[in-house]
Design goal:
Layout lengths: L1 E5 L4 H14 L4 E5 L4 H8 L2 E2 L15 H8 L6 H14 L9 H16 L3 H24 L22
Parallel strand pairs: 1-2, 1-3
Helix pairs in contact: 1-3, 1-6, 4-5, 4-6, 5-6
Length: 166
């Protein structure tokens, strides 16, 4: 399935493809286009638009796009994804940075990737995917109650080892 969003991705437009590939559509193909072309490309390519003006999987009812995707695809039962959604919300919506203190760090890191790699959104997605895997593992540990990651990681992602290490 094809998905389309605005080019020059940072937080939400990299986090959403991570979420989609890990939990919704492992074979997803992402198109990053100028904002004014999102709807046209969506129609022409049969792609699902996200994180663009006026789309269902965008900033709706106070949610960031990541949170809209969680809701639309029934992923809110995963406490770690909801926790990760809070971090992404705080990073993506500057006025609501207070929602999660980790959001400020994520915003800084995502901004750094944007500075290093400019408009090469596919490269940013490839390079940042392990970071989102790590954030998800952290969120699993945060929400598991025992401080350790859940027994299994995201689909296709090995769980973090329990105990030991630094």
């Amino acid at each position: 399935m094809k998905w389309v969003t605005r080019e020059n991705a940072a937080v939400d437009r990299i986090a959403c493809p991570w979420l989609i590939r890990r939990f919704v559509d492992p074979q997803a193909e992402f198109l990053f286009v100028p904002p004014e072309q999102v709807n046209e490309v969506a129609r022409r390519e049969g792609a699902t638009p996200f994180d663009a003006e006026g789309v269902e999987l965008g900033h709706v009812a106070g949610r960031c796009s990541f949170e809209s995707i969680l809701l639309e695809f029934g992923l809110t039962g995963d406490a770690a994804l909801v926790r990760l959604g809070n971090v992404i919300h705080a990073a993506d919506i500057t006025a609501e940075a207070h929602v999660s203190p980790e959001g400020r760090g994520l915003k800084a890191i995502a901004s750094g990737f944007r500075l290093l790699h400019g408009r090469d959104d596919h490269l940013k997605l490839r390079l940042e995917t392990p970071m989102y895997d790590a954030l998800y593992a952290w969120a699993q540990a945060e929400t598991s109650g025992d401080g350790a990651p859940a027994a299994s990681g995201a689909p296709g992602v090995p769980a973090a080892p329990r105990g030991g290490g630094s």
